[in-house]
Design a protein that fits this description.
The structure is a homotetramer. With about 400 residues, chain A is of the alpha/beta class. Chain A has helices at about 5-20, 45-60, 80-90, 115-135, 155-175, 200-210, 230-240, 265-275, 300-320, 320-330, 335-345, 350-360, 365-375, 375-380; strands at about 20-25, 65-70, 90-95, 140-145, 150, 180-185, 195, 215-220, 240-245, 285-290. Chain A has an eight-stranded parallel sheet with strand order 1-2-3-4-6-8-9-10. The first copy, chain A, has a two-stranded antiparallel sheet with strand order 5-7. In chain A, helix 3 links the parallel strand 2 and strand 3. In chain A, helix 9 (about 300-320) packs antiparallel against helix 13 (about 365-375). Chain A is globular. The mean pLDDT of chain A is about 95. Chains in contact: A-B, A-C, A-D, B-C, B-D, C-D. Chains C and D meet through helix 5, strand 7, helix 6, helix 7 and helix 8 of C and helix 5, strand 7, helix 6, helix 7 and helix 8 of D.
Chain lengths: ~400, ~400, ~400, ~400
Amino acid sequence: MTELAPSTRSRVLAALRDQRVETASWAFGNSGTRFKVFAQEGVPRDPFEKISDAATVHRFTGVAPTVALHIPWDKVDDYAALAAFAKERGVGLGAINSNVFQDDDYKLGSVTNPDARIRAKALAHLVECVDIMDATGSRDLKLWFSDGTNYPGQDSIRNRQDRLSEALAAVYDRLGDDQRMLLEYKFFEPAFYVTDVPDWGTAYAHCLTLGDKAQVVIDTGHHAPGTNIEFIVAILLRAGKLGGFDFNSRFYADDDLMVGAADPFQLFRIMCEIVSADVLKPEAGIAFMLDQCHNLEPKIQAVIRSVMNVQEATAKALLVDADALAAAQQNGDVLEANDVLMDAYHTDVRPLLRDLRADLGLDSDPVGAYKRSGYYETVKAERVGGNAAGWGA
Amino acid sequence: MTELAPSTRSRVLAALRDQRVETASWAFGNSGTRFKVFAQEGVPRDPFEKISDAATVHRFTGVAPTVALHIPWDKVDDYAALAAFAKERGVGLGAINSNVFQDDDYKLGSVTNPDARIRAKALAHLVECVDIMDATGSRDLKLWFSDGTNYPGQDSIRNRQDRLSEALAAVYDRLGDDQRMLLEYKFFEPAFYVTDVPDWGTAYAHCLTLGDKAQVVIDTGHHAPGTNIEFIVAILLRAGKLGGFDFNSRFYADDDLMVGAADPFQLFRIMCEIVSADVLKPEAGIAFMLDQCHNLEPKIQAVIRSVMNVQEATAKALLVDADALAAAQQNGDVLEANDVLMDAYHTDVRPLLRDLRADLGLDSDPVGAYKRSGYYETVKAERVGGNAAGWGA
Amino acid sequence: MTELAPSTRSRVLAALRDQRVETASWAFGNSGTRFKVFAQEGVPRDPFEKISDAATVHRFTGVAPTVALHIPWDKVDDYAALAAFAKERGVGLGAINSNVFQDDDYKLGSVTNPDARIRAKALAHLVECVDIMDATGSRDLKLWFSDGTNYPGQDSIRNRQDRLSEALAAVYDRLGDDQRMLLEYKFFEPAFYVTDVPDWGTAYAHCLTLGDKAQVVIDTGHHAPGTNIEFIVAILLRAGKLGGFDFNSRFYADDDLMVGAADPFQLFRIMCEIVSADVLKPEAGIAFMLDQCHNLEPKIQAVIRSVMNVQEATAKALLVDADALAAAQQNGDVLEANDVLMDAYHTDVRPLLRDLRADLGLDSDPVGAYKRSGYYETVKAERVGGNAAGWGA
Amino acid sequence: MTELAPSTRSRVLAALRDQRVETASWAFGNSGTRFKVFAQEGVPRDPFEKISDAATVHRFTGVAPTVALHIPWDKVDDYAALAAFAKERGVGLGAINSNVFQDDDYKLGSVTNPDARIRAKALAHLVECVDIMDATGSRDLKLWFSDGTNYPGQDSIRNRQDRLSEALAAVYDRLGDDQRMLLEYKFFEPAFYVTDVPDWGTAYAHCLTLGDKAQVVIDTGHHAPGTNIEFIVAILLRAGKLGGFDFNSRFYADDDLMVGAADPFQLFRIMCEIVSADVLKPEAGIAFMLDQCHNLEPKIQAVIRSVMNVQEATAKALLVDADALAAAQQNGDVLEANDVLMDAYHTDVRPLLRDLRADLGLDSDPVGAYKRSGYYETVKAERVGGNAAGWGA
């Protein structure tokens, strides 16, 4: 694939122009491992400053117009003010992420806790998140539960499912007509033995019971070794139950690397499923969100790079010659079919993305432009004193 | 737990007396790895001889009264004669296992093949298996598909699901009122990239669509590293979708070790879920089947040992003090709850099983009795010439 | 194995009487995951209180007479006073564990950092640990490096090895005649991409270069999925390079479960290698240490249980009929050899351990006795105010 | 990286021109999984026909001038004739691969077997392989042992190491001055429990004891999930103990996919270590060999594609700006260092490789040229009757 046909080129550029990636407020705060959080300078100290950072990412990439919030990390008194602040800076508020894992009460679980009082407390938080969605105009409630057990016997697997089911139903009933619940699964962590929503099957089964407003969200870092994630994408799309992605990458455990950093070919294969099912466009209702933390690397720059990684994988997926692929598949030509896919993957799409950015009136080099903008130096100077945002802050 | 209370003892013995484990005809034939099949002496040369071996296992264990067949490996002209032969020897014919993976046509898949002709051929085989079930009086059709792809792009994941779905529906419609379809999943192998039914979620989704006669079967050796199998047991039981088990064990890849050999604690935890949901008894409809091959070790002896391993794990699970466990769980006493479970696990149940065998009029030492019986020497002398049974034979 | 022969019984009891398990000071402080540390009541606030807890574990188990320290978590002005305090309570100070992973300077590595100033700082800490060993009389310096990289390209794998090698040599040269360096490896965490000492091979290669005072330590929770740990035990013993164990267990990632909790059969197999090489006795120089944290469960009670788990696995390993095993192995009798091993594993050794404790003048039920002792209620009442110990505290 | 500087371009082309990839004779024969070998038409029926196929690969790629043999699969009466036949076709005979895994005697092991007679037989085969090397002029003896055990207790891990060590020493002593022994390790398969050479550490330890002519070979498909292979490359290169590669790829288990097919980014990272240590050139003594089988896909075409995959990964590795990378690493600029690497990876090197082929007088499209050559049609017509080559054939 040396030269793109003009029609291909315009099709790909149009699709990339419409693509939307949602950033996460917590990516701009301090983070780390269980061993150490290495503090960075210039880190936001409140939700407004996080939104400024997110707006900066959008300013240089052009495809990241919303930012997800995490409650209570991003709790404010006046969400309308927060939304207005965001709007002024060119971005909007995205999904609301609940947090029922950082309170001493949740030691043995939140909505699955054997203690009814604690379950009620957790549920109240989830309902409060829907209240906040009403205030922010957010469409999606993203639910991740750290619930699980550490030791065999610690609690009844089945009873915990019953409690989970009950809580999900209560939240579901609270959702407005245009609101959705995105249920996340995670293979392991932080529970050591049982995870109450460990795989797509569990999330799917709950969402199916709940109804159309409940959808599964795939966090790309939340699978057992060797899992074929694009298979899950395909299967959930086929079932009409894929609500979105939490993008990140990982080699073995912690899921905080920039999406595409550990296995760019996997990201490409995932985006191929999206493109082939024609659900890239925003109106298809798949939320493409980043959920990663930047422990060692500069945060804003890493988020910009992550958005670009998603764009590059998408561009390659858009370049797959669908007709040639279908023909080779139908003919049982294993090598030809693989070759059609690899031809797109091997293509250097960076020139194309530079053109896209020029079309959008952006600098063709988002990272360079961000560095040259002086934004980081400014916030580093300004954001002195106060509490740097971070998990639990 | 030093002495069992008489009521506990009689409860446990009664449950163990009713337990049923189904053996597999192919476990008595030669098997191996992709590198080499090491032939053994005395191996059966036809389905009748396999049934003799299965009957021998039942004679010494008392809890293995049925044997599963594999079609076409166990194809005979007259299934009534085969059933009568089995009955004479004290056993019955169990599940019918289909085989759509050993024909050159199935190189790129059976029911998921892009070629409609091959799909039709595979479907015809599955329907033939139901015909055989009618003849043998078998309740369960066990479906395992080796279908998948080796290379990214080789075929459309989604189209393959559509084709799979279509074939399953056709087979389902062919089932009689008292017949069931057990759909097996497998994380990997023999396909290298996509497996068309790789996890319980995929099997569950298909079975849900099909209806009540479609159930998921858990092969204990078919999961990603780190998967919590007892969680899957619990979740399928809760959903009313667990049809049975294919028991075996493995350390990394090949799933052919004797059940309980690689991780006896895991087998115990699985049986704990069974016992706590009160579905051990045959009328609960969970089929407990062995599906393993004995590449290096003597086959009949290994099957006897496998049946005993299931019994031992079950006996331990039956010893769990359910009330104490529930109380500790409700109190959030992590160590006490774990300790209640471990107390049962650490108990040496072999004396109890010796008593059970005495009650059943069996030798208390099944392996020893089998060895002393001279059965192996007899068949070794008799089974000379002909083709030793094996995969594909 | 229903009754033990008197000679077996006395051999096993004698071996168990001599067994030594070292506890870890940090197991008594607060700990958690990257998401949350759930605080417990009664947690020690300084090294002295940690030693009191460790002494309590020894009081009820009789086989945990030393406690490992972690520097700087257990830094005190006067180590002689700390040692005297320990001695008064019936325990001694054990291995010194260094910490070069919780300083902002170590963000990109400690002894492998590209910056020479930071490498020098890390080395100075390691040398200080040897100074402390001189003061405490500790034999072993345990080195675990969190060093690694998160992203491909971040640093040169080879240069980092060179820097590591240089630092290890400098520390080695500082060791006294009766001091040893135990080098730990860890498959992953907290680095996401490269871990500078990820496997036994790397640790072994460095120790071989260094000399006899450098030995490998196996942390049972630090391996890739599917790794055969007892193989590593055997191979390091054969090479004379096994210095000891950090015991704990895990299902997938975090290595903080009580040893034997996740896979008791694995622990048994590990102890079988120890017993068969006759290196259980303290004079063989293998340090058996616990390295685990108790996030959800009561800490002292969990450490007692962990010591008991090691004892139970050891007792079973001691029961293996070595002659019968060797004969079956030599005869190529796969099932008989496995059966000899399993016979020991299935034995309930708890009565034997109760007898051992009676012989030692201990309560036969260490956990029960500890609970009845009122120790926990006392410290809970006393340890109010101050800073609860924990990682980084 | 839009345009290559002329000096870069000529450096990269020169390096690629000198690159050598060795093909494997067995890649041209039939192969499969333990479930089924799907036969292909036109498969060679003897070593001469395999060499013709290998020569065809070289004819279209220009960088695959040698072919490895497998004994006894490629046993012939007259190796000089075989070598002459190869030479005529433009290729040479490469490494000799031993086979001590396909004889009934090796059921419980070859050189590690508890039976001395079988060990002697296995050793005799290895020595015979050196005899064949003398006849073929091969430099390298590649040793892969399928030895291991299936069940805990089956055999003594340590005794097996002693027996392995003894056999290796005997073979080592038999090597001529210009001959080497390449010892391969494999994480699992075909043994289910213990593998006698499971990791690089074990292979390394044996090679270190043996001496300079013993080197470790890395098969890219032989590692635990999550293993960082490029780390092993770096560490073995640093130790002077890397003898070569067996290239292939895999997703979970079977290691037979075309190299670079499952994770092209990993292959690139491996080649980066090779390039950065300047050991790409043949005189550095690293053997770059393919070891993969093509179960579903056409074999010759797949081998051509595999050679091209190695070339593409190498070309990208050669494009890494080493000075910029070193500077970013030294500065601790995590994102910049990663970016330098990714810049090379994202480059489309296919135009460069087309130029290389033009320089070499080859068609710029090796797969297309091969297809157009009619070679496959010819051999399909000719190779009728006889026994198609395959494992064990």
